[in-house]
Write a structure and sequence with these properties.
By secondary structure, this protein is an alpha+beta fold. The protein has two domains: 5-73, Orthogonal Bundle (Arc Repressor Mutant, subunit A), CATH 1.10.10; 77-116. It has five helices and two strands. It has a two-stranded antiparallel sheet. Strand 1 (53-61) and strand 2 (64-71) form a beta hairpin.
């Protein structure tokens, strides 16, 4: 599943927070957006249905209760879930990472050899 641009903005707020947040906290964290509480609630409900957020607990607010939301996935998990959208398999990602490590190791060996004045093959 994919997050919309607006949902991703909310997820970034939740990912940066060390505590679960109420809709009002999310609105406050995004001051350039002029979202109303109902708008954020509708988006959070959709994100909950998609499995991206969960209600951690409730707090009393006036005569009602407000849900405190937290992310159900990490940013890394979300990025990995999107790889197929770009035609990248997990195996291809692992192969590329390993090749990058090998190149980094070779570069470190070459630098060490240059410092010692050894010929690089």
């Amino acid at each position: 599943m994919r997050l919309t641009g607006k949902e991703l903005e909310i997820m970034n707020v939740l990912w940066r927070s060390v505590m679960p947040l109420a809709a009002a906290d999310i609105i406050e964290a995004l001051p350039r957006r002029k979202w109303k509480g109902n708008t954020v609630h509708v988006m959070l409900k959709a994100m909950q249905t998609k499995g991206f957020v969960v209600i951690d607990s409730y707090i009393p607010t006036g005569g009602r209760r407000a849900g405190l939301f937290k992310s159900a996935i990490t940013p890394e998990e979300y990025i990995l879930s999107r790889l197929p959208d770009f035609g990248i398999s997990m195996r291809e990602l692992q192969t590329a990472a390993l090749q990058g490590e090998e190149q980094k190791d070779q570069s470190a060996e070459d630098s060490s050899a240059l410092e010692k004045g050894t010929k690089i093959e």
